[in-house]
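Because showing beats explaining, we let one protein speak, sequence and backbone structure tokens together, and leave readers to judge.
___
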Amino acid sequence: MLKITKKGDKAWVTFSFLPESKGEVFLCGEWNGWQDEKMKVKKSGEYYLTKVLKCDESYEFGYKVDNRWSCDSQVESVESPFGSKNSLLKL
């Protein structure tokens, strides 16, 4: 689930993800060279992380749970060079 708040040329994007199993959850995306960013967890078990990104850009991203790749069902997905799919965020 994504929550997007735009102000000027920037957007505050809160990425939320509820995994099927417990474990560490990481957000990975083009904005940082696909480096793992550990997500915070709520009492409900939902993981979240807020990023400030440039508007009028598109970013590929995904969630990594126990080294398994997952897409965000709220946005369209695109083929990755590794034979899987990435989520596509259009701001």
Summary: Residues 2-90 form a domain with the Immunoglobulin-like fold (CATH 2.60.40.10). The mean pLDDT is 93. The longest strand covers residues 10-17. The radius of gyration is 13 Å.
